[in-house]
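Re: [help] complex structure
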Amino acid sequence: MGKRIGTRTVRLERPPAVLGFAAVGGHMEGKGPLREQFDEISEDHFWGQKTWEQGESTMQKHALRKALEKATLHEEEIDYVFAGDLLNQCIGSSFSLRDSNIPFYGLYGACSTMGESLSLAAMMIDGGFAERTAALTSSHFCTAERQYRMPVPYGSQRTPTAQWTATAAGCCILGEEGGGPYVTHITAGKIVDMGIADPNNMGAAMAPAAHNTLSVLFRDTRTKPADYDLIVTGDLGKLGHDIVVDLFAKEGVDMTKNYDDCGLLLFDREGQDMHCGGSGCGCSASVLCGYLLRGMREKKWNKILFAPTGALLSPTSSYQGESIPGICHAVILSNERGE
Amino acid sequence: MGKRIGTRTVRLERPPAVLGFAAVGGHMEGKGPLREQFDEISEDHFWGQKTWEQGESTMQKHALRKALEKATLHEEEIDYVFAGDLLNQCIGSSFSLRDSNIPFYGLYGACSTMGESLSLAAMMIDGGFAERTAALTSSHFCTAERQYRMPVPYGSQRTPTAQWTATAAGCCILGEEGGGPYVTHITAGKIVDMGIADPNNMGAAMAPAAHNTLSVLFRDTRTKPADYDLIVTGDLGKLGHDIVVDLFAKEGVDMTKNYDDCGLLLFDREGQDMHCGGSGCGCSASVLCGYLLRGMREKKWNKILFAPTGALLSPTSSYQGESIPGICHAVILSNERGE
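Output below.
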């Protein structure tokens, strides 16, 4: 059973262990610097299906299946899956789990969904409601472009502040007991909206939410950036990342040593012409469930602060002139289980 | 800390108490049989805003504010809000909570969202992660029609099996201690898809999911329909309700005595020309947070099984010929806190 510490943070009393994890990605992800960290790369962006949406669901299925395989578990051994994606009515998740028998709680946290799903999946175990849970999210460049901007075949030009939605999915399976890493702390996000209304500049819209959640986490846990081997936000991209560094610098907090962003890690921004970097639920999910958790298992890092961010807009809200509400859910992962 | 019983059910060890609840609705809801059960009825379906979407967010704000008032609580005393709605990217919820400081977990469970949010809100308390939580959902006839079917001004004719999306919101606040009713058991939904692909017949698509979750709940808790004063599904409407009765009848289980549906309760089907009944996240939310919880406080019923259902489709999935995945999340509410 968890203990609330400070205003928005929970310290898990028996930190749940990561039992298995898997990342799957598409063509561009396979050309990027993390290509070796994926469990599966598909050159076919339909994933053998007839539509991109079906392809996205298939990606999620593969991520879940691979994570189960790596944890040597069967689907029946998972008590709950927390899943979400960017598609209208979250069909990426509901269709990926249509043939499964795992009890399902659907989430929507935009690109922060991997943080939200991991938080709830961990609390369900520490609260005694589950032995094993799964956190699962995805995004797909072609489904997202069609839904949020323009159909891909139109070949619309992208603005310099735009990010590239990752075609990727990640799945992380947690359990009561296991070798780790462990989820030790969770800081829930709250909505922060500083009035930015440009849907092609989501990094700037989400950066204040990341700053808010990270500040609260540092205060609640009485830690500072240097206490982590790595701090990673999800999908702020170049501009958002730099804003977070600036916001902390103004408060005398140095984030220049060990702070990175999943949107900057996934692609080679210059070589792959990605403008501000990657984005989408699948970006932070696949970076976590590939590069980051592998690196923790290999002791490259022992303590990571994973803080994916979401822009809670829709095309309708943008057409109506609304600004972009941001949110950031943070999770501390450690190779030490602690008390 | 909860105890898992059977395959998909959790028995809460210290059942969280309902501290406050509120239902708000629109014009049609104010003409229906439950008009006296609402805390607020607005004749203005814009709720004083410029767009229907902003109106829906405003409805959610009002439901949260009224529920807090009735519980004599302030926003700062709520540790987490679990909220969702039907709009693309769930903007009904994210914009309603934009000005609030409550940590926010966004959900998507279509019309089952009130069951999902109540489940997670209760487990967060029983697990020791929160003292007080809120479950909040909404739907709006005009935003839903525009998004799922046709803009309202077109005046499209509705099929006989169609349901009417409620313009309503409901909020329920839970806490560690209080006078009740109490959330005693939770059965998580799993996706059930029997191949029905007609988006104008969602009751039939969701009925097998309701039958599945209710069957599991009866088995896991070793109860039968007669052990409840009232069993209420959410938004199956006339056709779906009758299918559930039939499915149980085939197994020799009598559901004819005490089983109703939020979609049948909210409107006068004949008098209001509602075809199969009401639907939308706001339907089961407002029926629960008005009629049902009031009735429990007045001892009209002492034990209710609340089981809202969701159709996890999108217009895109329907255009692509997909069938409709259904889900049902069930919660037992009791005036007796139990062991």
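Residues 202-221 of chain A form the longest helix (20 residues).
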